[in-house]
Amino acid sequence: MQEIESLYRVKIEPQLAPIRNKQKKLQKEYVITGITFLAVVGFLIPIFVTENMLFLAPFILVLVFLVWQLIKANKLYKDFRSDFKRAVVREIVIAINPEWVYEPDRMIHPDVYAQSDIFRTRYDRYLGDDYVRGVIEKTNFECSELHTEYKQVTHDSKGRRQEHWVTIFKGLFFNADFNKEFKGRTYVSPDYAEKILGKFGRKFQGISGAAPLVQLESVEFEKVFVVHSTDQIEARYILTPALMEAMLRIKQQINCDVHFSFVGSRVYCAMGMRKNLFEPRVFGQLADTTDVTNMYRLFEINKLIIRELNLNTRIWTKY
Which end of the chain has fewer CB atoms at under 10 Å, N or C? Predict the structure, then answer.
């Protein structure tokens, strides 16, 4: 905590004054945009209800102003966000490890997401940012925030088409070198079925999942996770008692839904989180030591996973 407070006081706080000025300007633009939108609605209602065309000319003028205002506010937000990422998020990454590469507008490549095979639902929208890659001792890794969604089309009672965006995954997505070329694919997922359905859930586990169910001896592990694998023997070699204990500690410390997969020669980890993790607030305090501490701990997850999974000891050899 002393290191984080020093980071905030020495590196981050001195850069926040001009960003706060942009925040105030952005707040003003958002208020003007909101008022303009209400004015557009105010002129639109009598046009449709009373068909009074006297309101058409002012409606068009206000609508044009609203579009211009939206463009202006969007540009200001992009500048504000870029400055925040540079002054706050980048400084946090550098403080953890100056050799890590941080790219605020980049994300994990869709091919990597697909190779993990954790989420097999076809997505229609793939978003992400705050990409970090680097090496921790001997292990290379990369992570970023990701949000994948698919479009759901329904029709109401009158047959009108309605579109909804459904989240597949939202959170931090991580992958690292496991130093072993796996023959099969092993998946470790949150055990929703048994938690909700009890013994009936165990039966459901056997018919769901991307591969056959793997029964393990750790009762504590199987209360939290369910394992599927295309290679039962290899799955047991990977999931040693020490590794299962490490996964439980990771789950406990991160306190969110955690998915793992062991595919190719890499371990993938998807940590589900509902909120945006590294974005500035337009309204309210820009950033304080609590915000910096939360972001710092999120990036430290990279070290946590590599350390807990013991990836640096190179107990495996690639073949």
Answer: C
